[in-house]
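Summary for the funding panel

The consortium committed to producing paired sequence-structure records for every protein in the target list. Below we show the first two records in order, beginning with the earlier of the two.
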Amino acid sequence: MSELKSKHLFDLTIQLHPIVDLGATPAGERRIVPVSGGQFTGERLNGNVLSHAGSDLLLTRADGSFQQDVRLALRTDDGAIILMTYRGVRHSSPEVNARVARGEAVAPSEYYLRTAPFFETAAPKYAWLNKIVSVGIGERLSGGVLYQVFEIL
């Protein structure tokens, strides 16, 4: 196999509560970004992000990039609960980072935001999610994030 193939899984919009600044820890500058809700839409599953059931433990690394460590609870339109976890990285120039931090609209072509989501569910209809690898391509929005998530085939 010489190249990866993928299939669109869903688009995910996440709304965020205000950031809690933990400060300089031994690992780096740590912020907690609580999730306030959101929604996901795709050909095989749709639903909402549960409010107060997720957060991003965002770490500013020494090289200026941001490392994500996220847990979310998703509820499908038919009531199934799915745990979504992902690690990711966002990096750009210091100028673009400053614009994002101020909440300005920044084109996603000006920075790199990629994630590696995994899923966990007890719902038989969605058990296939327990066995896939996926990749998310992200875009920062004012008060949130938008991801296109793809199953790697």
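The next record, for a separate protein in the list, is shown here:
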Amino acid sequence: MKRDTLIALWVVVIGICALACSRAAAMSVEEQVKMLAARYGQVEEQLARSVRYSSKDESSGATIVRQAWFNGSDDLIKLAVESRNGARRELTEYFALDFQNDYDGMFMLVRKETPGPDGSVLVEESRKYFGEGKEGGNGVLIRELRKSAQFKPGESTDTVRTPNVTVDLGKKSTRPTEDQLRETLNAPTNTAEELRKSTPEFDPFANVKGDSDKYRVIHGSASPDGRFAIALGFANKPVDWDALYDKETESYYTEDDEGIRNYVVDLAQKKILGETGAAWPGTRRRYNHPECIVTWSSNSSFFVELLANKWSSDDCVGGKIVSGPKFAGAVNLLKALSPKIYSFVKKPFNREEGGALSFHNEKVTNDGAVDMEAAEYVSSGDRKGDTNFRVNARLRLHETPQGLSIEGVKMRRLPNEQ
């Protein structure tokens, strides 16, 4: 199916959806659907400049073509399986917010085309959205839409005008079992890893070296357009990457804090643009409780890199990329906001410890506005897990001759979590 047809279908599906929130907050089904829709559009636009693996299998009588696309961060961004048997065709496509953490959200499209004896074509489509359920639990089927249409001989098989029918997931017969869910969620990565055992069909990064010896990209940190990412590196010393590779986590990781740098890199040129100021020590997005969450503006110009942990954030920085591309700089949001937040809630602030704030629910707009939440949690004792306070903070990342800064900070109290 043509790309513009699919995009039009998405518009019909998401036209009434509300503004998407961060994955850190509980989201409605509509918000999760919209987030997956946005991800679909971002992925489709970068496929032509992504690494592509492909295979063809004709052993079953039908021709089955499998394709997997990876961005410059080596993250799987799309998997497609197409089967053709004469004029009969079936296409299955998978998109996810992060295939390494598929329970965050995944979309699955199945389109079947069955020819009739008179030259007509029956088209059946299913759209399944996986994410956080209304009653809790991640990686569950949260919405399924189906449509079916019979097209006359020679007529376009575009289903954009065919209405969707929402499947009632309250019925046991329409809900997948736990085994079926896990099989569906695992299918893209399992197939993609098999395809990666062969030589890429297309690799735009193959002959680009740049600064690649100096860094390794943090998975899940790529910008929406796939052009930039955050990477692990070290200051002023050669790196033995083989010695840092951890087979258990299948990632590069160091426990030596000295000299760690997080870089903003241009993936196409494999060029380091600058330092974020944070120091995430590995290339996985998550290591148990510690997690590196990178939130980008939709135009890939502003970002917030949050080093989250169980009870408080280890660091939080904001940065900006300008045309060139060049790195305009970064500002430490944890250090800048902590005293302001403690002053706002009228509590003592320990400047040496930098407070004990947990940031989450980051949103970044194309003009550098940042909307986030900060909370102080009790990490021990009888009140362990309780919330002392929650604050919403809004600010703008502002470029100055001296570098990036923040301006227009506004705060309001939020109800404590129970």
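Regarding this second record: The chain has a mean pLDDT of 90. Residues 54 and 234 are 36 Å apart (CA to CA).
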